[in-house]
Write a structure and sequence with these properties.
Shape: elongated
Radius of gyration: 22 Å
CATH class of the largest domain: Alpha Beta
Helix content: 25-40%
Strand content: 15-25%
CATH architecture of the largest domain: 3-Layer(aba) Sandwich
Oligomer: single chain
CATH superfamily of the largest domain: Vaccinia Virus protein VP39
Number of helices: 11
Bound molecules: glutamine
Distance between the termini: 76 Å
Length: 303
């Protein structure tokens, strides 16, 4: 019997379903698309095409990894974010849908006419600065991460998305290795820091707990360790009037707002995500704003 794309897809779907995997059909399709380098339509058009043994074996081994709980993105090594292709591996957090909302808000706050410098703390795959630079050509970014392995992936992603010339990658434990040349140069500081309470890590879904880097998840005893340090130290690098913009956990809005207040940030606002959970808190550094921000009418003011 010839083994066609359709047969193999059915077999993959059945194996995933037997292990009660959610999205069995979708995952079966995405894994085969990835191996064959076909898009969704090509897979349908070629449904009766024969699959050779090498491809079949590779596909079955991908399905088995998925059955064991390995995230789909760690098998395909990719994740789309903001409509752009990103490479991911076990050293980088898999970019999330919620973080696209953070990027969309950041883009709406940025100016399209003047050069702006953005600093991303805990850049991981680099999905935030790379998307900002891709959708606003006036943007230059600094992507900071403590993990050299993550920065290798981020650098590659910058090249894949053709924005490498506008992003500087710095290995640093938060601000520890950030040079004095960046003092008061940053127009927007953005971060999706680790924000899970240490004691809650064990109750995360297996796929996250066992496969994603704990370094990218663990926010310390109360989940707020990174917000505390970033709120305290970011003022040194931000221009007056510059934005600070955070992704937060669903129950961290009030705590992060009070950290911002304690550190004299002004114009503090928050935003819910599409599922109605508090997800973003943002504010501005007190002081006379710089020219870059002055073209946005409704945000214009001097304090
Ligand atoms: N900035 C990256 C992202 O949003 C990594 C975040 C992290 O590792 N906490 O996906």
């Amino acid at each position: 019997m010839t083994r066609t794309i359709n047969h193999v897809l059915q077999e993959g779907t059945n194996l995933l379903k037997a292990e009660s995997k959610e999205n069995a059909q979708l995952d079966a399709r995405l894994l085969l698309s990835n191996i064959l380098n076909y898009n969704r339509v090509e897979l349908i058009i070629n449904k009766d095409k024969e699959i050779d043994k090498i491809v079949y074996d590779e596909y079955m081994s991908a399905i088995k990894s998925r059955v064991k709980g390995v995230p789909l993105q760690h098998i395909t090594c990719e994740q789309e974010f903001m409509g752009l292709p990103f490479k991911v591996n076990a050293y980088t957090l898999i970019p999330r849908r919620e973080t696209e909302e953070l990027v969309e808000l950041a883009l709406s706050l940025l100016d399209k006419d003047h050069n702006q410098l953005i600093m991303d703390i805990g850049t991981g795959s680099g999905c935030i600065p790379i998307s900002l630079a891709s959708y606003n050509e006036k943007v230059n970014c600094i992507g900071i991460d403590l993990s050299q392995e993550a920065l290798k992936v981020a650098k590659l992603n910058g090249q894949i998305n053709a924005v490498a010339d506008r992003i500087t990658w710095i290995i640093s434990n938060l601000f520890n290795s950030i040079g004095e040349e960046y003092v008061e140069t940053v127009d927007m500081l953005i971060s999706n820091p680790p924000y899970i309470k240490t004691e809650d890590i064990n109750s995360l879904m297996t796929e996250v707990r066992d496969f994603e880097p704990h370094m990218a998840l663990d926010g310390g005893k109360d989940g707020l360790d990174f917000y505390r340090v970033i709120c305290r130290n970011s003022k040194k690098y931000l221009k007056c009037g510059g934005f600070i913009i955070f992704e937060i956990g669903y129950d961290q809005k009030n705590a992060v707002i009070s950290l911002l207040e304690k550190n004299d940030f002004i114009d503090i606002q928050y935003k819910k995500d599409l599922s109605g959970k508090d997800r973003i808190v943002y504010a501005r550094k007190k002081g006379t704003q710089q020219s870059i921000i002055s073209s946005r009418g409704e945000l214009d003011y001097v304090k």
